[in-house]
Design brief:
Layout (H helix, E strand, L loop, with lengths): L1 H16 L14 H10 L5 H10 L17 E2 L3 H8 L7 E2 L7 H7 L6 E2 L15 H9 L9 H11 L9 H7 L4 H5 L8 H9 L20 E4 L5 E3 H4 L5 E6 L4 H5 L1 H11 L4 E6 L12 H5 L10 H15 L5 E3 L16 E5 L5 E4 L9 H12 L12
Parallel strand pairs: 6-7, 7-8
Antiparallel strand pairs: 1-10, 2-3, 4-5, 4-8, 6-9, 9-10
């Protein structure tokens, strides 16, 4: 225990000896030797200790920092189990003829569209915020920040970047549209939030719950919460059984959660008849009185952390209207009686099977919030039962 206490207090000296408050600093890279020491001395330590240690070292909390190193997705339906079940000829792939489910399910599982399920289709190693051409286009076009690109937004993007006003975009137009500003190429990056802002956000549970949440295979903790319109109460245990339950945790000031709203809504539209979807609205990630984000201001999302349940309900209703989610939204209590035990802040995904146990648990948001990975587990869970022989399923 003495060793653990010393390891806990050692990074505090970094905070004391670090730059004065308000002084601009460059993001630091956490010392891997300290993480290794923690692993060796206290392998079962709470996840928040990794976050606290890295904050005090000056980390800006990237996908490989803090608890993101440990709080990875827990998947019951991985490639190994899928191969064992379906790969009858042991050739290292699952063909359509070997898969007992529908054409539609097989097509969704075949992420690389090569007409077979392979290990590559089960690779979700890239973090949810990893840059890509598609992501660059999405963030440029989704002008209202609601996670959905509409025809109107596409038209506005075309008009804005159509240099000749001819009704189409040329290669040069798109190259110009996505050219990085000169300042980002040469100027040093400004310092991010200060250590004291991040420490406060951590222990207010705005960065995430201080608890780790239920593990894969464990019984999902029961709860009862009211819907955001206050008209009814929903109890998890009463939903469990007939269909798998998808739990979606999120909040309005988490920009990455808003950007995923369209992905979650599409999953609901695809599987609403086969699974029950419920969102739990949790504590704000980036309130204006916490780790404030300028990107929120640009889309009109600027609010203080709710201090009462009624205030949280009001923000949840605004979020529901903005994101236009079709499935029920429940509002967590102001003391986080659900978001805390489920480790639902700032965003997270769970799949609950018919026995009420966790069949999939995403990594911590925002980096581990991956609707496509949840979809894969949902499809394979649904196909655990004998496949229907009705030709309509083919």
């Amino acid at each position: 225990m003495t060793t653990r206490i010393c390891l806990f207090l050692a990074p505090c000296m970094l905070l004391i000896s670090g730059p004065v408050r308000g002084q601009e600093t460059k993001p630091a890279t956490p010392d891997p030797s300290l993480s290794k020491a923690l692993d060796e001395a206290w392998p079962e330590r709470p996840e928040w200790l990794d976050m606290y240690t890295d904050i005090l070292q000056g980390s800006q909390l990237g996908p490989n920092d803090g608890w993101f190193r440990r709080a990875l997705a827990q998947v019951g339906f991985d490639w190994a189990s899928t191969k064992t079940r379906y790969d009858r000829d042991n050739d290292g792939k699952v063909t359509r003829g070997e898969f007992s489910g529908s054409d539609a399910d097989f097509a969704r599982l075949d992420r690389d569209h090569d007409k077979a399920l392979t290990e590559a289709d089960f690779d979700f190693s890239a973090n949810a915020l990893a840059p890509s051409p598609g992501a660059s286009l999405f963030y440029r076009v989704d002008r209202d920040g609601n996670g959905k690109v509409t025809r109107e937004e596409l038209d506005a993007f075309l008009k804005q970047n159509d240099s000749g006003g001819l009704g189409y975009l040329s290669l040069s137009d798109l190259q110009e549209a996505f050219r990085p500003p000169p300042s980002t190429l040469s100027a040093p990056r400004p310092g991010g939030p200060s250590k004291d802002v991040l420490v406060r956000a951590l222990f207010r549970q705005e960065l995430g719950s201080l608890q780790a949440g239920p593990k894969l295979g464990e019984k999902a903790p029961d709860f009862t919460l009211k819907t955001n319109d206050g008209k009814r109460e929903v109890t998890l245990s009463k939903l469990v059984g007939p269909k798998p339950v998808v739990l979606v945790f999120g909040n309005f000031t988490c920009g990455p959660f808003r950007s995923q709203a369209g992905n979650v809504e599409k999953l609901y539209s695809l599987y609403r008849d086969r699974a029950t979807f419920v969102m739990v609205y949790v504590r704000e990630a980036h309130p204006k009185d916490g780790w404030h984000m300028d990107s929120n201001d640009r889309v009109g999302v600027s609010l203080a952390q709710p201090r009462t349940y009624d205030e949280r309900v009001s923000v949840a209703q605004t979020c529901g209207a903005k994101l236009a989610l079709s499935f029920p939204m429940l509002v967590d209590t102001i003391d986080d009686t659900v978001g805390g035990p489920y480790s639902g802040m700032p965003s997270r995904l769970y799949l609950i099977d018919g026995a009420g146990k966790v069949a999939y648990k995403s990594g911590r948001g925002p980096f581990g919030f991956k609707p496509a990975q949840l979809e894969q587990s949902l499809i394979l869970l649904l196909n655990q039962k004998p496949a229907p022989t009705n030709s309509a399923q083919k």
